[in-house]
Amino acid sequence: MPALPYEAIYELTSDAVYELELHDDRSPVFVRVNPAAARQLGRASREVVGLSLAEVLGEQAGDTERRARECARTRAMVKATRAVRLPTGDAIFETTLVPRVDDEGRVFGVLGVARDVTDRADAERALREANAELERRVEERTAELRATVTALESFCYSVSHDLRTPLRAIDGFSRALLEDHRSALDAKGQDYLDRVCRAARRMDAIIDALLALSRLDRAELELARVDVTALGREVWTDLDHGPRTTFDASPGLVAEADPRLLRVVLENLLGNALKFTRDASTPRVELGGDSARRHFWVRDNGVGFDPRHAARLFQPFQRVHADRFPGEGIGLATVLRAVTRHGGRAWAEGAVDAGATFHFTLGSAA
Amino acid sequence: MIRHSNTILLVEDNVDDVELTKRAFAKSHIANEVVVAPDGQTALDYLKGTGSHAGRDPNVLPALVLLDLNLPLIDGLDVLREIRSDPRTRRVPVVILTSSREERDRLAGYDLGANSYVRKPVDFNEFVEATRQLGLYWLVLNEKPHPEE
Asked: What is the pLDDT of residues A109-151, one digit of tens each?
């Protein structure tokens, strides 16, 4: 293939290419102008050749002239980006000037290539503005969030204090009635008061559970390498599990996690497994997992659940076995919050009377 | 000379809690006189012999102050701060008795020099037991900082 003549590039490029001749006593003169440059100046090439910078660019000529002379003096490439007002409209040019040197080594002019970067500059400005706007919005939302968290904290505080005071009165005065005025109450009346007392204590336990849940969200996440197998065995030992139930933890399970939150997760999952295997003939609870995938599970052979309820299990106060097993209905909600804080998820598998497996991950696979 | 009476100063604004606390004392066989201050200002008036307790001898300190935290007018922690900053009252045993289970309240209470921090249980039987132990420790076993009347 024959070489492409430079002339063709000069003629066809959309960059403006021009040559200026330098004079000591007057404005540099155009000696060559390619079609792209002529188009931008809104004239024909031949009209521009022979005119000075001052004649073509008017007041804006000074800046170009200064750089052209700097290029000639330093004999080095000069680059600049600047806005220019042209007959064809305002534009931003990225201009490169190189000196023209004759056989004797004298600089007699400069060659300029000017690329119209208006679109790019506009896009950059739009991006900068969008970023600034985004930044501003993030700040705004953060401030809103901070205010919400503060409000939530003071709400939790008053819940813990203000709700318990009337509960204490309900429980205390019901008992006072039972103790001091028992003879005035028949068996049914006494039973009702017992129920009042139990309800008050149950509400107290619910308040505790709710506060524990909100504390999960407030605490800073402190990650450490956790021996999940050892933690599981420790939690199991602390549970009131009795000799009937066997517990098996897979050896060598490890995770990068907040040890306190992970303990809460295991306390709830192992506690549930223990509770729901209560009536099994050979109750069995297992802790397993795949450390590399940051995925763990607790499996039991207890009463299980209807798979249609699998998603609801993790919502607060949803109790699938409320009639047969005690609880506040907040354990799995707590588990979900704790693993979500690690960037993980939790889900359940099971069937009625066929046991259950509760899975959780602590973020994406390591 | 500063000395202790056997009075318990109960700083508590909730009338139900006052009644329940008195009942718990009775059930625990604590027969000490109980003076109730329904707000922080009244508590400080009692201790200093000023305001609503003008004329009371401020050199006679209660055997024990039971202090709730959420109080009208002057907050419980401010009452504690004032008690600890007055040379006359700084050694009086103060037990914070509150519904709050917040760690910050507990830490603030201890930082300000509370002698104990006891959470009021909702279960009245537990409350009686807590009161019994409090009374046994602070009114019987504990040697008071100043001589008793």
From this structure: 999 999 999 998 899 999 999 999 999 999 999 999 888 888 8
Tell me which fold the domain A123-217 belongs to: Helix Hairpins (1.10.287)
Q: From the CB of residue A90, how many other CB atoms can be counted at a distance below 10 Å? A: 9
CATH 3.30.450.20 fits A6-116, yes or no: yes
A211 touches B: beta carbon within 8 Å: yes
Domain ranges for chain A: 6-116, 123-217, 219-361
- Residue A98's pLDDT is 94
Per residue in B21-36, pLDDT (tens digit) is 999 999 999 989 999 9
Alpha-carbon separation of residue A351 from A157, A310, B91, B107 (angstroms): 40, 10, 64, 47
Complete edge-to-edge strand list for the sheet that includes strand A78-86: A29-33, A16-21, A107-116, A89-101, A78-86
Mean pLDDT value of segment A6-35: 91
Q: Does domain B3-141 have CATH number 3.40.50.2300?
A: yes
Q: What percent of chain B has pLDDT over 90?
A: 62
Residue A290 structure tokens = 């795949």
Q: Do A168 and B102 touch (CB under 8 A)?
A: no
| Six-digit token string for A350 | 């099971």
Whole-model pTM? Answer: 0.60
Architecture of the domain whose range is A219-361: 2-Layer Sandwich (3.30)
Interface residue ranges in chain B relative to chain A, Cβ cutoff 8 Å: 14, 16-17, 20, 23, 69-70, 98-102, 120-125, 127
**Inter-chain touch A172–B124, beta carbons under 8 Å:** yes
Q: Which of A85-94, A167-176, B93-102 has the highest mean pLDDT?
A: A167-176
